[in-house]
């Protein structure tokens, strides 16, 4: 099993190219199931989750052709990939494939819409809470699907096709919004989704579906209206920049000090996180095609945050922000409202000398002047990278075990950090 070894203490200086967003790439790839034509995705990040989804789509009959490994010499490691689901050869998504990744469950929407049936294993993904699928089921039932759950599989049927309907989400769900959006594009008549997720990845999916011929309005607001069409065509779409990767490296710079241009990204994707970061004393300067993050000395100031659906502070940056707060000059409070079990990084950060106490969904972080390197264990994707951030500022050597979590969502992390002066290496095996 690979490990990441970090020797802390160096500031970060230079340029970090931001990759295409994992959480946009996954639903976009799944949208290829909606058409027998080719969907071409540019700026697709090269990640373990993307590869896993390619295996899942391949099982349904999607032909996948990688065009180029790098689009530009100076860019991230983006690829352009063609996805063609000429025929769907299997409407079952088996446990062996789906259990590894939450988003793989989302194939249920397009399969049901196009084929009138889908049998999908209950999903896996980061172990950050119970993560039920009740909203997916209820939403699809509002489009006329008949759904049963047996032996760990969700069996959804709509032999005469889905029918447009109105669904008010009792709770905001990104994944269920993606699925309702995809399913409704081919339903008969109009669908209205209320209390929809407003995340930029939902807007990216909607834009791609519109390019494929779907009739969608309101994506990015709480009410999305979809007028069903008989079929969708292919399209060419560029995956939006990864706002979580952007925020992660911004926090790393705020932690170590230095001056880094985060390239191919936009401050409009993560305003609340950047606002919190600027309150810690980091300078955030939007530039043409990127964001400059700078901190030259001075204390890291303590800042309280509460996670919320977009446009609130993203839960996927909570662990990284906590990593930063471990070195703040004072006490901060971090409240997690999205997932009930997303504090597994707390005990690992403690190995580096962090002082954090937990009470319900709130962590109280008492900043310390020094962290000291130690062996730590990655427990989930964003928790792992919070340990990297802490390790970059810790005295001495930190070894992060179970790096496969990191590889799910961070493209060439060690290379991007090393290029900015960090001492980070992968130890294979
Ligand atoms: C691949 C991807 O894009 N993953 C992101 C997506 O996950 P994901 O789409 O799984 O997260 P959701 O927005 O659905 O989850 C939000 C909350 O709703 C609950 N819920 C969800 C569905 C359901 O049927 N019933 C239910 O109760 C969840 O347990 C959670 O408490 O959005 C999360 C919230 O921004 C991010 O942390 C994940 O990185
Ligand atoms: C929680 C995440 O991923 P997933 O939903 O796939 O578990 C994440 O990207 O932080």
UniProtKB/TrEMBL annotation:
<keyword id="KW-0670">Pyruvate</keyword>
<keyword id="KW-0132">Cell division</keyword>
<keyword id="KW-0133">Cell shape</keyword>
<protein>
    <recommendedName>
        <fullName>UDP-N-acetylglucosamine 1-carboxyvinyltransferase</fullName>
        <ecNumber>2.5.1.7</ecNumber>
    </recommendedName>
</protein>
<keyword id="KW-0808">Transferase</keyword>
<keyword id="KW-0573">Peptidoglycan synthesis</keyword>
<dbReference type="GO" id="GO:0008760">
    <property type="term" value="F:UDP-N-acetylglucosamine 1-carboxyvinyltransferase activity"/>
</dbReference>
<feature type="binding site">
    <location>
        <begin position="131"/>
        <end position="135"/>
    </location>
    <ligand>
        <name>UDP-N-acetyl-alpha-D-glucosamine</name>
    </ligand>
</feature>
<keyword id="KW-0963">Cytoplasm</keyword>
<keyword id="KW-0131">Cell cycle</keyword>
<comment type="similarity">
    <text>Belongs to the EPSP synthase family. MurA subfamily.</text>
</comment>
<feature type="binding site">
    <location>
        <position position="316"/>
    </location>
    <ligand>
        <name>UDP-N-acetyl-alpha-D-glucosamine</name>
    </ligand>
</feature>
<dbReference type="InterPro" id="IPR001986">
    <property type="entry name" value="Enolpyruvate_Tfrase_dom"/>
</dbReference>
<dbReference type="InterPro" id="IPR050068">
    <property type="entry name" value="MurA_subfamily"/>
</dbReference>
<feature type="binding site">
    <location>
        <begin position="22"/>
        <end position="23"/>
    </location>
    <ligand>
        <name>phosphoenolpyruvate</name>
    </ligand>
</feature>
<feature type="modified residue" description="2-(S-cysteinyl)pyruvic acid O-phosphothioketal">
    <location>
        <position position="126"/>
    </location>
</feature>
<comment type="pathway">
    <text>Cell wall biogenesis; peptidoglycan biosynthesis.</text>
</comment>
<feature type="binding site">
    <location>
        <position position="338"/>
    </location>
    <ligand>
        <name>UDP-N-acetyl-alpha-D-glucosamine</name>
    </ligand>
</feature>
<comment type="function">
    <text>Cell wall formation. Adds enolpyruvyl to UDP-N-acetylglucosamine.</text>
</comment>
<keyword id="KW-0961">Cell wall biogenesis/degradation</keyword>
<feature type="binding site">
    <location>
        <position position="102"/>
    </location>
    <ligand>
        <name>UDP-N-acetyl-alpha-D-glucosamine</name>
    </ligand>
</feature>
<dbReference type="InterPro" id="IPR005750">
    <property type="entry name" value="UDP_GlcNAc_COvinyl_MurA"/>
</dbReference>
<dbReference type="Pfam" id="PF00275">
    <property type="entry name" value="EPSP_synthase"/>
</dbReference>
<feature type="active site" description="Proton donor">
    <location>
        <position position="126"/>
    </location>
</feature>
<dbReference type="InterPro" id="IPR013792">
    <property type="entry name" value="RNA3'P_cycl/enolpyr_Trfase_a/b"/>
</dbReference>
<dbReference type="InterPro" id="IPR036968">
    <property type="entry name" value="Enolpyruvate_Tfrase_sf"/>
</dbReference>
<feature type="binding site">
    <location>
        <begin position="171"/>
        <end position="174"/>
    </location>
    <ligand>
        <name>UDP-N-acetyl-alpha-D-glucosamine</name>
    </ligand>
</feature>
<feature type="domain" description="Enolpyruvate transferase">
    <location>
        <begin position="8"/>
        <end position="417"/>
    </location>
</feature>
């Amino acid at each position: 099993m690979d490990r990441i070894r970090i020797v802390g203490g160096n500031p970060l200086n230079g340029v970090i190219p931001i990759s295409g967003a994992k959480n946009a790439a996954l639903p976009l790839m799944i949208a290829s199931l909606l058409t027998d034509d080719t969907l071409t995705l540019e700026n697709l990040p090269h990640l373990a989750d993307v590869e896993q989804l390619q295996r899942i789509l391949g099982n349904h009959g999607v032909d996948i052709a990688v065009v180029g490994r790098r689009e530009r010499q100076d860019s991230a490691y983006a690829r352009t990939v063609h996805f063609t689901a000429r025929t769907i050869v299997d409407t079952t998504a088996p446990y062996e494939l789906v259990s590894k990744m939450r988003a793989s469950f989302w194939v249920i929407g397009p399969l049901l819409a196009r084929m009138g049936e889908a049998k999908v294993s209950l999903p896996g993904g980061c172990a950050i809470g119970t993560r039920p699928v009740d909203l997916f089921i209820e939403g699809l039932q509002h489009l006329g699907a008949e759904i049963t759950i047996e032996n760990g599989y969700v069996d959804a049927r709509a032999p005469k096709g889905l029918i447009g309907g109105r669904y008010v989400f009792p709770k905001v769900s990104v994944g269920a919004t993606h699925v309702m959006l995809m399913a409704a594009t081919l339903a008969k008549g109009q669908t209205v989704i209320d209390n929809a997720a407003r995340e930029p990845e939902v807007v990216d999916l909607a834009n791609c579906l519109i390019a494929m011929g779907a009739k969608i309005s309101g994506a990015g607001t709480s009410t999305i209206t979809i007028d069903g069409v008989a079929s969708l065509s292919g399209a060419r779409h560029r995956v939006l920049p990864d706002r979580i990767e952007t925020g992660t490296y911004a926090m790393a710079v705020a932690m170590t000090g230095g001056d880094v241009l985060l390239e191919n990204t936009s401050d409009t994707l993560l305003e609340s996180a950047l606002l919190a970061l600027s309150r810690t004393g980091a300078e955030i300067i939007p530039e043409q095609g990127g964001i400059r993050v700078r901190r030259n000395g001075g204390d890291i100031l303590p800042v309280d945050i509460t996670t919320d659906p977009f446009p609130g502070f993203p839960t996927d940056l909570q662990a990284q922000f906590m990593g930063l707060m471990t070195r703040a000059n004072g006490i901060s409070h971090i409240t997690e409202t999205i997932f009930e079990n997303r504090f597994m990084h707390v005990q690992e950060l403690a190995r580096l000398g962090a002082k954090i106490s937990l009470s319900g969904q709130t962590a109280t972080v008492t900043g310390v002047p020094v962290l000291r390197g130690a062996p730590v264990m990655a427990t989930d994707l964003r928790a792992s990278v919070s340990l990297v951030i802490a390790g970059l500022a810790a005295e001495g050597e930190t070894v992060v075990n179970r790096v496969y979590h990191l590889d799910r969502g961070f493209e060439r992390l060690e290379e991007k950090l090393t290029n900015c002066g960090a001492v980070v290496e992968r130890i294979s095996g």
